């Protein structure tokens, strides 16, 4: 596994599917700030070609397999919800606290464990972490503009976290 965090404004994403699975995936992408192009299962290659990622959710496996194969042949990375052999990547269990992003993944081996870890992370890192991140970010910016080295700034971040008793 190679964990990555993609800038939602730098990627071109398509979403194909139907039903509740499609709605869940659309909501996840919207929450991440990803502008998504909604596609039909029989979308043309000309529409697929400029995309970089394709999410497929709620299609029958044969239909999903065909669409995923076409997209992959055009160079897209593909995720077919709940069909690991058809996935180039998967989405981890996510907890968001402002810009703080906490994730858990089992590489698709035990999704129930990832969901349980997500709940633990959500309980452990409550909504107060949004403001904490903002405070740390502002302090870091002040220290960087004062000319402190990367190592000194990192130490000051650790010290402030310890001083506040946040971890």
Short description:
The protein has 167 residues and is an alpha/beta fold. The chain has helices at residues 19-31, 45-48, 61-73, 111-124, 128-145, 150-164; strands spanning 13-17, 36-39, 53-57, 77-80, 93-97, 100-104.
Characterization of the model:
Helix content is 46%, strand content 17%. With 167 residues, it is of the alpha/beta class. Strand 3, helix 3 (61-73) and strand 4 form a beta-alpha-beta unit. The two termini are 27 Å apart.
Tell me the layout of helices and strands.
Blueprint: E1 13-17, H1 19-31, E2 36-39, H2 45-48, E3 53-57, H3 61-73, E4 77-80, E5 93-97, E6 100-104, H4 111-124, H5 128-145, H6 150-164
Parallel strand pairs: 1-2, 1-3, 3-4
Antiparallel strand pairs: 5-6
Please tally the helical runs, counting DSSP H or I stretches of 4 or more residues: 6
Estimated radius of gyration: 19 Å
Architecture (CATH level 2) name of the largest domain: 3-Layer(aba) Sandwich
The CATH class of the largest domain is Alpha Beta
Summarize the biggest pleated sheet: 4 strands, parallel
Q: Tell me the CATH superfamily of the largest domain.
A: NAD(P)-binding Rossmann-like Domain
Shape type: elongated
The low-confidence parts are: none
Largest sheet: spatial strand order? 2-1-3-4
Tell me the series of helices and strands, N- to C-terminal: EHEHEHEEEHHH
Cα distance, first to last residue?
Answer: 27 Å
Total strand segments = 6
How confident is the prediction overall: mean pLDDT? 96
Instruction: Give the helix/strand class.
Output: alpha/beta
Number of domains: 3
Helix proportion range: 40-55%
């Amino acid at each position: 596994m190679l964990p990555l965090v993609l800038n939602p404004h730098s990627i071109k994403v398509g979403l194909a599917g139907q039903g509740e699975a499609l709605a869940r995936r659309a909501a996840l992408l919207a929450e991440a700030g990803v502008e998504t192009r909604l596609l039909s299962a029989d979308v043309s290659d000309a529409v697929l070609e400029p995309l970089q990622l394709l999410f497929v959710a709620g299609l029958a496996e044969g239909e999903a397999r065909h669409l995923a194969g076409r997209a992959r042949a055009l160079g897209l990375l593909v995720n077919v919800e709940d069909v690991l052999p058809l996935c180039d990547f998967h989405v981890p269990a996510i907890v968001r606290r402002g810009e703080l992003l906490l994730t858990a993944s089992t590489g698709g081996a035990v999704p129930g464990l990832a969901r349980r870890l997500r709940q633990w992370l959500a309980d452990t890192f409550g909504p107060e972490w949004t403001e904490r991140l903002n405070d740390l970010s502002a302090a870091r910016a002040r220290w960087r503009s004062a000319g402190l080295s990367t190592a000194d700034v990192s130490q000051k971040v650790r010290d402030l976290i310890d001083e506040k008793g946040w971890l």
